[in-house]
Design goal:
The chain is an alpha+beta fold and 305 residues long. It has one domain: HIT family, subunit A (2-Layer Sandwich). The protein is built from six helices and 13 strands. The protein binds zinc ion (2 copies). One zinc ion binds next to loops.
Length: 305
């Protein structure tokens, strides 16, 4: 692909300008310096015990995964002007390990912790949505180097999710099928496939607004992250390990997040990965039209190699 191309999202009213640059393969860069000193506030010897919410394993041995309340939350349960709850999942006691460096069974347990806390926070009265996400690297908004994810329980339905759901529902009415099931069908023989097994399908979406953006789609159609069975969690752990290791090779910051159904309506749960190699500027902020300099076909190839 040499020329730029305007592409529309599979089913949402979103556009991207794919504008390939020469020499587009990401260069291996020097590993980022460890910005924070050890031990940090997420290291076992420094964790504030008052803030602990849950441990894995639950008792007996030292923790491998620890859930704590966010120490500096924007939303709290005692503030009716900004009601909500924020938790942090410390993914490993080891300050220097990143999530993709952990063994598969450990990554599976992190997914289990995501689901446990998602379920617990959904039950809080007045909570409308719970989002599980990870920021990795300074450009993606992570302020602490020690590997962690976050969960935020919100008192409002996030507008972006509402907009996506409306597009999802419109697509369903028009086609009688789920758009995400259709993406898997449409792209399974394409050059956008990153990885698949019998449970998960990972692709670079054709109109990705993010360089190296990826969708992690379960092949089975279900509504929330809690509906994942053991095999599906194992597949997701494998897929994350592989894909995130590639981003780490080129030291690229990223965010990922789970999208589950807002209420109990029909939906196709998925995880979206949005790397952040560059900053959005006037065009992006002023119009919502994004320029992506890495064609998704090239991104898929980068991940497959
Ligand atoms: Zn630490
Ligand atoms: Zn579906």
């Amino acid at each position: 692909m040499d020329q730029s191309e305007i592409r529309k999202d599979y089913f949402q009213n979103k556009y991207v300008i794919i504008a390939p640059k020469r020499a587009k393969r990401p260069q291996k860069v020097l590993k980022k310096e460890e910005a924070t000193s050890t031990p940090c506030y997420f290291c076992p010897e420094q964790v504030d015990k008052e803030f602990i919410v849950a441990k894995d394993p639950k008792a007996g041995q030292a923790w491998k995964i620890l859930t704590v309340l966010n120490k500096y939350p924007a939303l709290t349960e005692d503030n009716h002007e900004a009601f909500g709850r924020q938790e942090v999942i410390i993914e490993t006691p080891d300050h220097a390990k990143e999530i993709h460096e952990l063994p598969l069974d450990h990554i599976e347990k992190i997914i289990d912790t995501y689901i446990d806390r998602y379920e617990a926070m959904k039950k809080i009265e007045e909570i409308k949505y719970v989002i599980v996400f990870k920021n990795e690297g300074g450009k993606a908004g992570a302020s602490i180097a020690h590997s962690h994810s976050q969960i935020i329980a919100l008192p409002i339905v996030p507008p972006d999710l509402k907009t996506e759901y409306e597009a999802y529902a419109d697509y369903f009415v028009e086609n009688g099928r789920c758009p995400y099931c259709d993406i898997i069908d449409k792209e399974k023989k394409s050059n956008l496939v990153i990885w698949e097994d019998s449970h998960f399908f990972v692709l670079s979406p054709s109109a990705s607004q993010y360089p190296y953006g990826a969708y992690f789609l379960p092949k089975r159609h279900f509504k929330t992250m809690s509906d994942m069975n053991i095999q599906e969690k194992q597949s997701l752990a494998k897929a994350l390990k592989k894909v995130l290791a590639k981003l780490d090779d080129v030291d690229m910051a990223y965010n990922y997040f789970f999208h589950s159904a807002v209420n109990n309506e029909d939906y196709h749960m998925h995880l979206k990965l949005e790397p952040r190699p560059n900053i959005w500027a006037g065009l992006e902020l002023g119009t919502g039209i994004i320029i992506n300099t890495v064609p998704p076909e090239d991104a898929a190839k980068f991940y497959r190699q």
